[in-house]
Amino acid sequence: MSRLLHTSDWHLGHILHGHPRDEDFDGVLAEIVAIAQESKPDLIVHSGDLFHSSRPTIRDMFRAMRTLRELAAIAPTVVVAGNHDSPDYFEFFHSMNGPSYGRGLFFVDRLRPAHDGGVMTFEACGGEQRIRLAVLPFVHPNRFWRRDSTTGTSYADYTAAMRGLQGELTEALHEEYDPDRDILLFSAHVFITGARTSPSERAVDEAFETPPEDLPVVSYAALGHIHRPQAIEGLKFAARYAGSPLAMDFGEADETKSVVIVDADPGRPVRVLPRRLSSGRRLTHFTGTLEELKAAADQYDGTFLKPVITGEEPDGLLSQKIAEIVPNAILINAAPAREAAAGAVLDGDLGDEPELPDAFRAYLAREGVDADAAESTVTAFLHLLNELDDETLTPVPAEEQLRAALENPWKEAS
Fold first, then answer.
1. Where is the Calcineurin-like phosphoesterase domain (predicted)?
2. Beta-strand pair 271-276/258-264
3. Are 114 and 168 in contact (CB under 8 A)?
4. What is the pLDDT of residue 100?
5. Where are the beta strands (DSSP E) in 219-317?
6. Which pLDDT does position 55 carry in this prediction?
7. Would you say the pTM of this structure is higher than 0.85?
8. How far apart (Å, rounded) are the C-alpha atoms in residues 154 and 156?
9. Helices (H), strands (E): how many in the chain?
10. Which residues contact 284 (CB under 8 A, 6 or more apart)?
């Protein structure tokens, strides 16, 4: 029997309403390493968003490398780039690690053909079994538009292109496939149609979804991108988002965070066991009077606490009063109930604010823009938003002509 440990979406460097979370990350990463040491997997997969920013700090890079090298000492470890990760940084990380470090520490920086890192093979069970892993890091829609100019830029092209990529990986997985020995796995940083997002997550453009039926048919699909741990329903094989190990905002406060242990044998259904993570400060809400908070103070000790106090007028000393009741809590946007209800700016949950596309759509409606024209404008706006996640600049024809002229200044322009 082969064993996989699946983790995802660490978002190292994430800051919660101005509060760094170094201690939380150190605690939960140590917990993940301990689970790996106990469970003794044959392979460890991180399905993307290792960092919260594409330009992580030195401290966060050190934290990531230290933890990943501890994991690589246990089993070969593969990290797939997510939309928050820098492909160039991942390429550098891989050059400094790779198969020579520990039992192997591999960074999948960008979309690659099967023969050039798109499909990876690992020995398992002392060589009796073999794991074949197809990997698909986050692929920005613009890459498809540049990859094949004949497809245009419509939403349908993204789905079709992703279907084609996954089909190519499926074919490659089955090359030299031995059904008595091989276990097929897939890992991708992608949004699957129907996946449940957390209220605090940035809205996912539904046009850039991947239908679950387009996933390669494997023993297990290790997915990243969505913070809420969950299984993908309606498939004949197991597919799961491991989710983030820490709650990223108060919209995730009630989620049970986890890593996933997967036991697999060739030709048999896998056994999937989520392992609960408990490290890090909890994110908590409280609504009530100061007296009620005093009575329940113990349960908020050591948490990030977002209190709404009833029966109080606006008071510059309110935060101080709350801090005296729960001195070990970190207060987030403490406010009296009247002020909290009246001022949306005092409510820091991203999920409570309209997403940019919705706000822009509402603005166009207020301005009397025709519905069809408004929708095409919102579509263009979404494309611009997605450009922000792509490190590769969109080609500009005039710039390309200028570059060509500079490369050969003696050639007469056509």
1. 3-229
2. antiparallel
3. yes
4. 73
5. 220-224, 230-231, 238-241, 258-264, 271-276, 283-288, 304-309
6. 92
7. no
8. 5
9. 11, 18
10. 253, 299, 300, 303, 304, 305, 306, 329
